[in-house]
Amino acid sequence: MTDNWKVALITVFSVLGGILVAALISELHLRLTAAEFSVKGKHCYVTGGSQGLGKAVAQDLARRGAHVTIVARRESLLQEALEEIKACASAPKEQGFHYVVADLTSYEDSMRALSEAVEKQGCGVEMLFMVAGLSNPGVFIEQTEKDLARIMDINYNGTVYTVHEVVKRLVAEKTKGAHIVFISSTLGFFGLIGYAGYCASKFAIRGLAESLRIELQMYDINVHCYFPGTIFTPGYEAENLTKPQITKDIEGADDGLTPEQCSKGMFKGLARGEFAITTDPITMLFRCTTRGTMPNNNIVLDAIVAGIAWIAFVPWRIFVDFSVRRYATKLEKSKSKTKAD
Length: 341
Ligand SMILES: NC(=O)C1=CN([C@@H]2O[C@H](COP(=O)(O)OP(=O)(O)OC[C@H]3O[C@@H](n4cnc5c(N)ncnc54)[C@H](OP(=O)(O)O)[C@@H]3O)[C@@H](O)[C@H]2O)C=CC1
Ligand SMILES: CCCCCCCCCCCCCCCC(=O)[C@@H](N)CO
Fold this sequence. Notes:
By secondary structure, this protein is α/β, with parallel strands linked by helices.
């Protein structure tokens, strides 16, 4: 082997070694600076806990020894879910399980629900999981002003009312080390045909979470935001009834996970001290390339993934734009054919 080759090999291995060491240091840094995440014996308030992701999260909380309150509108579903959640308890005699019926789009109802929960459990909320939300996809011009207002109302207003009140209470009671978990979506990172209103609401959640992560350090309150991809839930089945075919085709690239898989991955991210949590590779690509000034989960890996996304998303975006225009042409043709017939 010539000296030139030796120098080249040593350089390549030094660079790769350097990257590996930097990645390990970053991993160590995240773990050492992570706020303690333990829910045992704490009052955990889970909105949307009667089905789908919220129920899976509440069941995991029960397994971890928490006192769990679930909130939603339909009482029969809350009752059934609470039994399933109780069945997961690790110390059933010591843990409190309650449900509260409330429509979180109403400020008054949100306040009442919180007070009722605190009264039933006999202690303030220390862990907040804001899971309630929905998706009502459709072509923008076919959506009504009610559809567009409703999505912000439940996904954004229904979240911020409760979070605002809980934070005020935590600060007044000088409770340290609380955690607030927001639920955004893969669609909290990028916009997609058929999801205009939904994306706006999930971007809003990301903005709220990012701002509060910074601001609530003042009171030692920890903020996280989970960005799930497709989850097989009753909500997902419902949204598919109005989802345009083009949207289904584009998002078909995402395999989807069960609520239990998502919850498990979310808790892993919480324990690691991540701010922006993702549980599938596609959402990770979007997280890394959209991260702005969000904290990295691993500065080296995130930068590498961001580089891959930066390149891969160019052809993908061109393909999406092309598919949308082709879809329009097809629709136009089928309309004029119906007219001719
Ligand atoms: N499923 C998916 O593919 C994805 C979902 N997400 C997000 O995850 C979260 C959970 O989704 P998923 O489990 O699919 O949803 P589901 O529709 O299956 O469950 C939603 C839960 O929220 C409750 N809820 C809805 N509206 C209100 C309201 N106005 N007041 C109080 N509770 C309400 C529902 O109960 P009730 O109707 O009785 O009130 C139910 O418990 C949502 O924020 C969603 O946007 C993010 C990415 C992907
Ligand atoms: C080389 C690059 C390839 C990139 C492929 C990208 C594929 C797009 C995946 C879109 C996934 C959307 C999940 C939406 C989840 C959600 O929030 C809704 N179900 C509403 O509840």
